[in-house]
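Hello, quick one for you while I still have it in my head. A protein chain has come my way and I'm curious about its shape. I'm sending you its amino acid sequence along with the C-alpha cells. I'd be grateful if you could look everything over and explain what you see. Here's the protein in full, and shout if anything looks odd to you:
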Amino acid sequence: MVQAKTEGEWDEILLGYLCHLFFAYVEELINAGLESGWPAGEIRIKIEKALHGAIEEAFSEKHYRRADPFWLPGFRFSATNHVYASEEWREIQAKLSEIAEWEADGSDHQDNARTVPGRKRGPKPDFKNKTRTAEIVERVAAGGNWADKLDEICDALDTAEIPYPKTWPKRELRMKSWKDGAEMEPTVAKKAIEDRLKAAASQRKKATPETLS
C-alpha cells in the first residue's frame, strides 16, 4: 500500500519545483541582461519581481490549499526563505556583484553611451581575457570534456595570469586564484569558466561577418 504524502512532503516537492523553474528563468534573464546592457540594479529588480511572480503562480496553480488565500502569506514567507538560503541564490548575488563591478570599471564607457548613438549601457566585457580563457581550455582539454580537467585548466589560467572573478575573495570560502576555485568550490569555478567560454563564442560569432566581408 502506497503511503500518502504529508503536507510537509508536498511543500518540499512544490518548493523544489518552484526553484527549478525560477533559477532556470533567472539564468536566461541574466544572459539577456548582459546582451542588452542592463545595469546590475535593473537585473536585480527584475529577478525579485520574477521571484514574487513565481511564488504566486506556484501557490495558485500547484499548492494543495490554493483554494484558500489565507495560506498564501505563509507559503510566500517559507518559499522566499527557501530560495534565499539556496546555493543558487548566493551564486546569483555573486554574479550581480560581478556585473556591478564591471559597470564600475567601465563607468567612462557608460557615460559615453549616453551620447554616442548605437552604444549600449552596461558592463564593459573583457573579451581579450575571455578569448584567452577559451584558447587555454581548448589547448588543455584537447577536444575532450574540459570539466574533467578543471584542475589543469585552472593551473593554466593562473599561469597565464587570467583574472579570476573579483567576487571570489568576498565569498564565504575566500578564493584568490583559479586553483583555489578548483580546489575549494569546483562548481563555482566551472560556472565561471563556462560563462567566459560562452562570451568568447558569442564574440566570435559577431566577428565572423566582419572577417568574411
User: Anything to note?
Assistant: DSSP finds nine helices and no strands in the chain.
